[in-house]
Amino acid sequence: MAARKILRLAELQSRSLRPLPRPLQRIGQWRVAQGWAPSTSGYGPLRDLPDWSFLDGRPAPLWRGQLRRLQENQELARRAVKLSRGLDAAAATKPPGGDPDPRLRPKGSRRKPVRTSTDQ
């Protein structure tokens, strides 16, 4: 059924003088193409910076959502540092270019010859 529709669409396009318009681009793809965040709730100055400030230049107090995001970002950074330190410690204990896994052996040296019908 879908193949028939595609064929009909191709026939219509070949017969018509004007080409069919491109399919619409999704909003998120367009925003990324413009160099913006995929959604308005993503990163960026509209989300991360305060909406206003005092006349004397003091910044506005952070809102609950901003405080929550700040705390989540700090926890994520702590976790990344912890995991990175773990990888560094594991790399330090393993000798560089060490022996391959002893369980892996070459198969060619211990293979039995294949018996054929002429070997009997």
TrEMBL record:
Keywords: Mitochondrion, Ribonucleoprotein, Ribosomal protein, Transit peptide. InterPro entries: Ribosomal_mL52. It holds the Pfam family MRPL52. Residues 84-120 are annotated as: Disordered. Its main location: mitochondrion. One of its GO terms (cellular component) is ribonucleoprotein complex. Transmembrane segments: none annotated. Residues 105-114 have a biased composition (Basic residues). It is found in: Mitochondrion. Belongs to the mitochondrion-specific ribosomal protein mL52 family. This is Large ribosomal subunit protein mL52. It comes from Grus japonensis. The lineage of its organism: Eukaryota, Metazoa, Chordata, Craniata, Vertebrata.
